[in-house]
């Protein structure tokens, strides 16, 4: 809880809360109940299905699982999935941080409305996102025609997939960076500048290190989300094997053609990658907060 | 953890109550009260949704009321054929399965849900027929007439992936069979190498493979592509809706047959076998067959077929699945992991 303290809004309200409720027997009973309910819920909702999927995948044996994963079509879909997710992540880190910066540091009309709009991608069914992108950038739209004349295919090719992923994961980085930026004291930046640091130097040496864990969180979340994205991609990608078929679409195809083992093999790779990314994130955050907060 | 003990206790009680209510509610769902009326659950594929909802079901309700004096209430579920078949297999208690492919019914047979010989009926268990046709742009700007035209440079062909849409196997089967049939007619002998090459050359022109037939139609309607492979009934349905949706029937194409069957295990559980069987018999009556015919399906009933003969011309080189050796063989030889389809996809991938 110590690490979280700095994110809590300060002020008298917080102080009142932390003073209340002296430890006692009744309180511990409530704690236990609440804790076990929480664990039960996480177990039921997340752990159980994940364990079931993993167990089912390994049922056919490790060799079989490996064979399913290394099928050329499965392997290609995995490569493509990671490629587009990584490209998307880098773009997202830059644009997301920028957006958060603008929303926090600048005052302009309709700022609250625009701020609310950031979450819209979460609210729209991803299939609708896909259709919207096809209508906007598809080969029959004006924009699509313009790009096609210059030999660039957006929809039904890889740029379309990245575009869809950018839209779907847009809020992650913004919403991770925003609160940290809001909490950040401008004094430090000003101090740095008084000491003769350039704006760029201040950003690099003062702002960026503070934002780093938050940016990382946003990046990791959007990356994990991108690995599993299906609804929008299946509409915009074209889904041609060895060209534009990502893993989630490959998995769907395997399920539809009753090859559950094939689906689980690729699924487990996505699952483990996602888990690894989130674990690494956790580790880096712990590590950086240790240096951040030596007290 | 900055919460008072009271708030925490209150919250935990609420959470526990929430779970209890949730669990009780879930448990109750299965034991809904049984009233006087008959109930039927229809698990169907998406394509005939309109005709079932607007024509067949109301007609059957009237028929059943007249015959027995009882009302029959329908629960209907429509989704892609494969998904529907799996849903029924996994416990969606549909009394009747009306699906796109024999294979999807056979899955229920293998699962032990359908125990009678569903192919013993008058029309081998089929309720409707259709063809694989080519939808083109109005005035046919690309001058498409036959299968070979789909392989030409610059033509964009659209059909869904047979991996994600069981129904899409019809399209691949149609191309493969047409290749065989055309080589047989011109050279006197079935030329598998030609058929395989034709499929590969057409597949090479496919830039978008949607996950279902309906979505492919949508992609085409949005203006992408020169040729769309779809079912004749799907194209006729669009025309019925007043859309400019011209299509050509290639001279060699496949006859599609869609099965329907009573799901024994669930009708026995629900005690509604009588009404379920009546429904499966009803849909092949002339009256129901005419409804299907109006909605773009080729009737299986001979009399209805005769009445609509003008609407449904028979192409000269029509063949059915048995021409390719039946579903079982096709599933292995074409769609198996080393089948023709899988090989072609790999080869096209290597060439990219």
How are the SSEs ordered, and which strands pair?
The complex is a heterodimer of chains A (295) and B (352).
Chain A: H1 12-19, H2 25-59, H3 62-69, H4 72-105, H5 111-117, H6 120-123, H7 126-137, H8 142-149, H9 158-183, H10 186-194, H11 199-228, H12 231-236, H13 247-256, H14 260-292
Helix pairs in contact in A: 2-14, 3-14, 4-9, 4-11, 4-13, 7-9, 9-11, 10-11, 11-14, 13-14
Chain B: H1 5-29, E1 38-44, H2 49-68, E2 72-78, H3 81-89, E3 96-98, H4 102-110, E4 126-136, E5 157-158, H5 169-187, H6 192-203, E6 206-208, H7 213-221, E7 227-231, H8 232-240, E8 247-248, E9 252-262, H9 264-270, H10 273-282, H11 286-294, E10 298-299, H12 302-307, E11 317-319, H13 326-333, H14 340-351
Parallel strand pairs in B: 1-2, 1-3, 5-6, 5-7, 9-11
Antiparallel strand pairs in B: 3-9, 4-7, 4-8, 4-9, 4-10
Care to give the gist of this entry?
The complex is a heterodimer of chains A (295) and B (352). By secondary structure, chain A is mainly α. Chain A has helices spanning 12-19, 25-59, 62-69, 72-105, 111-117, 120-123, 126-137, 142-149, 158-183, 186-194, 199-228, 231-236, 247-256, 260-292.
Quick tags:
heterodimer, A: mainly alpha, MetI-like fold, disordered N terminus, B: 352 residues, alpha/beta, D-Maltodextrin-Binding Protein, domain 2, 2 domains, 47% helix
The portion of residues forming beta strands of chain B comes to 15-25%
The CATH H-level superfamily of the largest domain in chain A is MetI-like
Helicity range of chain A: over 70%
What count of helical segments of chain A does DSSP give? 14
Distance between the termini of chain A: 14 Å
Got a strand count of chain B? Answer: 11
How helix-rich are the residues of chain B, as a percent range?
40-55%
Question: What is the approximate shape of chain A?
Answer: globular
Name the structural class of chain A: mainly alpha
The helix-and-strand class of chain B reads alpha/beta
């Amino acid at each position: 809880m110590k690490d979280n303290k700095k994110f809590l809004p300060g002020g008298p309200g917080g102080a009142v809360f932390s003073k209340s409720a002296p430890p006692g027997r009744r309180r511990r009973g409530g704690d236990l109940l609440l804790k076990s309910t929480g664990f039960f819920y996480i177990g039921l909702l997340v752990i159980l299905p994940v364990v079931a999927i993993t167990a089912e995948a390994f049922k056919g044996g490790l060799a079989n699982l490996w064979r399913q994963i290394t099928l050329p079509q499965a392997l290609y879909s995995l490569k493509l999935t990671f490629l587009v997710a990584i490209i998307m992540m880098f773009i997202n880190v830059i644009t997301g941080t920028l957006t958060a910066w603008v929303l926090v540091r600048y005052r302009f009309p309709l700022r609250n409305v625009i701020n609310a709009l950031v979450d819209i991608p979460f609210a729209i069914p991803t299939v609708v996102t896909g259709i919207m992108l096809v209508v906007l950038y598809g080969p029959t739209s004006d924009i699509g025609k313009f790009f096609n004349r210059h030999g660039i295919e957006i929809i039904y090719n890889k740029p379309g997939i990245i575009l869809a992923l950018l839209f779907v994961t847009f809020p992650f980085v913004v919403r991770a960076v925003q609160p940290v930026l809001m909490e950040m004291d401008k004094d430090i930046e000003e101090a740095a500048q008084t000491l003769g640091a350039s704006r760029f130097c201040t950003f690099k040496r003062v702002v960026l290190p503070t934002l780093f864990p938050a940016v990382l969180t946003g990046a990791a979340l959007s990356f994990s989300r991108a690995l599993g994205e299906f609804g929008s991609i299946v509409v915009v990608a074209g889904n041609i094997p060895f060209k534009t078929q990502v893993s989630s679409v490959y998995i769907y195809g395997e399920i539809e053609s009753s090859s559950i083992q094939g689906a689980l093999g690729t699924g487990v790779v996505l699952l483990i990658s996602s888990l690894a990314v989130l674990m690494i994130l956790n580790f880096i955050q712990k590590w950086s907060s240790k240096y951040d907060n030596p007290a | 953890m900055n919460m008072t003990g009271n708030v925490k206790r209150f919250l935990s009680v609420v959470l526990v109550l929430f779970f209890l209510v949730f669990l009780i509610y879930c448990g109750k769902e299965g034991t809904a009260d049984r009233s006087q009326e008959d109930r039927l659950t229809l698990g169907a594929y998406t394509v005939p949704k309109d005709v079932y909802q607007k024509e067949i079901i109301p007609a059957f309700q009237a028929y059943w009321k007249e015959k027995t004096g009882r009302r029959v209430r329908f629960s209907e579920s429509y989704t892609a054929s494969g998904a529907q078949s799996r849903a029924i297999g996994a416990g969606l208690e549909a009394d009747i399965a009306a699906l796109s492919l024999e294979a999807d019914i056979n899955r229920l047979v293998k699962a032990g849900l359908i125990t009678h010989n569903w192919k013993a009926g008058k029309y081998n268990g089929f309720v409707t027929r259709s063809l694989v046709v080519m939808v083109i742009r109005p005035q046919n700007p690309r001058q498409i007439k036959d299968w070979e035209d789909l392989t030409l440079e610059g033509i964009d062909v659209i059909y869904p992936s047979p991996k994600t849409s069981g129904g899409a196997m019809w399209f691949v089967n149609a191309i493969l069979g047409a290749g065989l049939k055309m080589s047989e007619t011109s050279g006197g002998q079935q030329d598998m190498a030609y058929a395989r090459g034709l499929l590969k050359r057409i597949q090479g022109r496919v830039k978008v493979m949607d996950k279902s037939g309906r979505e492919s139609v949508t992609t085409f309607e949005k203006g992408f592509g020169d040729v769309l492979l779809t079912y004749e009934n799907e194209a006729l349905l669009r025309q019925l809706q007043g859309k400019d949706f011209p299509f050509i029937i290639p001279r060699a194409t496949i006859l599609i047959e869609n099965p329907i069957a009573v799901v024994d295990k669930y009708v026995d559980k629900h005690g509604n076998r009588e009404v379920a069987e009546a429904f499966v018999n009803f849909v092949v009556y002339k009256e129901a067959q005419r409804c299907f015919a109006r909605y773009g399906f080729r009737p299986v009933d001979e009399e209805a077929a005769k009445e609509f003969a003008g609407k449904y011309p028979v192409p000269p080189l029509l063949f059915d699945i048995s021409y390719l050796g039946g579903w079982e063989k096709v599933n292995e030889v074409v769609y198996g992991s080393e089948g023709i389809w899988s090989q072609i996809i790999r080869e096209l991938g290597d060439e990219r």
